[in-house]
User: Fold these one by one.
Assistant:
Number 1:
Amino acid sequence: MNLFGSYDVVVTGAGSSGIVAAIRAAREGASVLLLEGTGFLGGLITGGRLTKPTGLINSTIFHEMLERCVGYKGADGRVHESYWGKYTGTFDAEVMQRVIIEMVEEAGIEVLLRANVIQTVMKGNAVHGLLIRTKSGESLVLAKAFVDASGDGDVAALAGADFMLGRESDGLTQPITSYFRVLNVNVPALIADCEANRADMWEVVYPKEAGDRNEDYAMAVLLTGFQQRIKDKVAEGFDWIIPKDHITMKTGLIPGEISVNVTRFQGNGLDDRDLSRAEIEIRKQAYCAFDFLQRYVKGFEDAIFLEVAPKLGVRETRRITGQYIITETDVRGNRRFDDAIGLCNSPVDVHEPGGSRAIMDHVGIGFGIPYRTMVPLKIDNLIVAGRCISADAIAFGSTRNVPACTMTGEAAAIAATLASTRGVPTSSIAVSEVQNRLRELGVWLGIPGEDVPDALKQAS
């Protein structure tokens, strides 16, 4: 067997959680290998066009990423408010890709793209290596500590960790989706249409000082609604093939650019056939929605269909069973935990499995994310980060969002680096050490008695 290399920390998955984890681990002094199955870095925040963090950013690495995007005039770093709470800025996907490449290279991280983990190498209950498959064949990767930021919990599952999948009643997961992008939209006319039909809109967010130019609205508009309009036009005969009853859209960096979130495919994100069908059906749905917008929403008359996001938006797969399962009650009740590693105010964002509805419920000043949700039962030398942490199906509606993913990525990196530096298993690292380092970095932990940022106090 070919030995690809030996490292202090190996991070699997280069989405938002994995990027943050790799950069933080490298900055803490670890030699890092970042493995990614696709051909690009950033996951959904780049290839998925998921360019608006749903909540306030509380990861110092991700905050720096956003600020660098601002420096390239490719982001709005200000705090904004929606009906579901406050969130930090928006950014352009390609500018973010540029920033990620810069920061990864500056940190000295080795990156291996188009690499899939196919097996774990175990010593007892501890992970010591990964068998990977690339175009060159199969190779062995060794490390002192591992971070599973794959989103699907692939490494943890291969190591034998228990996991949850879907809701308890029927096992269905939240549906798969993809953004699609449109150019040459008359944004002032679109906003006027939404204001004229305000009763049919859940949110109409735009700069009130903006004028009549598309440039005035770049990365500053968020619209959700059109539910009654869809119902009315379907009754008149429009063939709406999408199992979703509303549309969300946002403006991009290019004047007149709109990203639309409306597609929905019910399937298992771990099943190859479902994923293949999703790729095709979601494109058909995107074309349907574009036709609808051109016919029935002002401002889209001369719009040009640009693309469906190249990375499929899989919302939910495995949730690894950790030492603690964070619950809906914890999230909605703003619970604090002694072992919390980040304060999260992301809303409970659940797209109905098997149905057409969605909820976006405000959680006020937020809740603490326990470190125990990142530690799989029975498995050592492995910490999970991102959307595969231990959460029930409703709590997951909040923890799957970018703010929580990046917080867990940063905490996982600190724990993994401490373990690798000392040559000890990750289980021997006290959470207090991770918290102390996060506190030094300026992270709001979400522990009992901790003060919270002014923005969240106002949100409460």
Number 2:
Amino acid sequence: MNRSADSRAARGSTFLAVVAAAAASLLGGCATLNPRPPVDVVQPTSTRPVPIAAEPVATGSIYQAASYRPLFEDHRARLVGDTIVVQIVEKVSATQSSTSSIDRTGSVNASVTALPLFSPNSFARASAAGTSSNTFAGQGSTQSTNDFSGTITATVAEVLPNGHLVITGEKQIGVNHNVDVLRFSGRVDPRAILPGNTVPSAQIADVRIEHRGRGPQADAQGMGWLARFFLNLLPI
């Protein structure tokens, strides 16, 4: 009896393992059939300040070039780990339209009234006529408009040799079962930083913005895995 029970338990555990593996592969296949377009945001989106080791000053001065901040100036991001407020104002609009029209018409008429050695009435009905017409009309229009606005506080992740700042940041807002994720990265010229340690996104190079959601609302906006599967198989 004990051997029979142990055998049934072993078969049951094997069956559960097979079912779990099949479910995992099915979920992996679903994610593959409906992938999200990636955005190349600089990672990681959070950076801690780099500790600066105190170097002995030979002259006895208190000035340190590595951590220098002007005394009579608004606080601005300069070092790795400093924060900066980014005002996201992105508005891109493009419109393209084209119209083509071709109209061509031609006609040919010919008749015979008289020939030598034949009576004048012999060719009363001898005539030929031809007409050709060709008409083409085409019209196309393309319009694209993107408008994105918001505010995010980013962190300086790297200071380039020319003094430009590589910034990156992330913001997550969760409400009930939905989570909105905003990621941002770019390269800032310190001269573009405005008073108050703010900079508009229009003056940031290599901008990467990602705004996505996680939860039932985001899942409802995506195509189902079965529909996606048949869509990939359709020849047209």
Number 3:
Amino acid sequence: MLLYAVADIHGRSDRMAAIKSNLETYRPNVLIAAGDITQYRTLQIISELGDLSLPVLALRGNTDLKRVELQFALKENIVFLNNRDVTLQGVHFAGASGTIPVPFRSRIAFREKFIWERLMPMMTPQTILIAHPPPWGCRDRVVGKYHAGCKSLERFIRDSQPALLICGHIHEDVGTACLGKTLIVNCAMGSSCEGAIIDIQNGRITAKILKTNG
């Protein structure tokens, strides 16, 4: 399976144009939209995602108001991963929506204990977990030195060890890292990044960060 993972579109038409271009180039099986899809009131991007001809797994970030959930529900190809799981083409995905803004410490949501207790029974060593913020200490540095990831997410990953975490939120620290056996991919779109292409073959996962042409 080939995944195209993005986060932090922030309702921007130029970022949506980059997504469509990369979809044409790489022809992935699934698009992952790991939060901050809109910028509070800009819902047009959800319509454009709904017009795509492939499944989209989406969750809310801190700039996605609750009303985007209704917009997701209206689109047949969009699956809203709000503390739930889904299996596509034999690959298991689970997701947790939300975060509160940095600096310098992020939280996945205000009811973190409930979220992790609900997700833990869903987790397997093959699960692909999607969350908006990165875990504390992994691809989470702001201004080059301050960790701004989510500590409860870091603990959850250490306890559950999914195969992969797809995240965003920290635009300045895109890239890959490992937390135990879990590959971390921060795919936040920005001036230097158009997301990540993730290839899953026979249990092996490889990730390529897509650099902007500029």
